[in-house]
Amino acid sequence: MSLVNYDSSTSESDIDNKDLSPPTKKSKQSLQRFQLPVSILKFSGTKNVTDDVVIDEPEKHDGRIRNFKHERGNWATYIYVPVNSSLLDEVQQQLQFAFKSLELQTTNDLHISLSRTVVLQYHLIDSFVKSLKTHFTNWSSFTVSLRDLKIYSNEEKTRTFIAYVVDSFYFEKLYHLLLKVDSVMEDYGLPIFYDDPSFHISFLWCLGDKVDVLNSNLKKILDILSQNNDSDILKIKINELKCKSGNKEFTFKLK
Ligand code: AMP
Which residues are catalytic? Predict the structure, then answer.
């Protein structure tokens, strides 16, 4: 799989060879007046379309159930803060052992999401990335800490996640970044993040809705975590953001 990287210092000419600029007006009102290209697909969140054949192959994506139709030209796209993935190796293994019956899976690429997974058409990727790059220019690196745990499920309740939550003190910093991401999403007619964003690092997940089971075992989970860590606080330096679109990966370095 080839990974294409360009960071915020990438020359404009690499991505500026087509006139694919999105509309510049950002308010929802002005967006409504802008005629969206028919090729921009809205993420539906469900798969109720009965005349579309949805072929899902869970074994090809960690057992995850795809929530949009896989079609040539539609690229699953998301924006996130990458996190060193070996950081939680030990606690992942210990919790997998302690909760064998849940068949917990490790999250391979630890991250803090700044977007939902949306569907972007291939020919719009370059201008979408260029737009993100514009918004992240001049942003300074910063550190966040995480100490509390929270159990999440996806909207379809087909997967449950164990996650560290970013401390509330740092919420606003990430929220400002999120607003930039949301504005690009809106420009492209794509869904923005949750109304009540909760920034977190999921490090284990399992199939099905196991929120209640895991919540009732939170104390046991916390005990295992505290036996493992010298300090109960994780500190993450945020010095870059990434956008993944299909098999392409774009990096935006912060100052
Ligand atoms: P992630 O680790 O970013 O992939 O997130 C794990 C799951 O948390 C996703 O499937 C989200 O749908 C879910 N989630 C539920 N509520 C929220 C929220 N308020 N903010 C962010 N993610 C959420």
Answer: 111, 200
pLDDT averages per 10-residue partition of the chain, 255 residues: 36 31 36 34 32 39 54 89 88 94 94 96 96 93 95 96 97 96 97 97 97 96 82 88 95 95
Question: Which residue ranges have their beta carbon within 6 Å of ligand 1?
Answer: 113, 152, 154-155, 161, 194, 196-198, 202
- At 70 the pLDDT is 63
Question: Going by CA atoms, what residue is nearest to atom 4 of ligand 1?
Answer: 113
> Which domain range does residue 159 map to?
16-253
Whether 86 is in a domain gets the answer yes
How many domains does the structure of the chain reveal? 1
* Domain-embedded: residue 104: yes
- Cα(112) to ligand 1 centroid in Å equals 10
Residue bearing the CA closest to ligand 1, atom 16: 152
Q: Which residues contact 190 (CB under 8 A, 6 or more apart)?
A: 40, 42, 43, 118, 119, 120
CA atoms of 95 and 33, how far apart (whole Å): 51
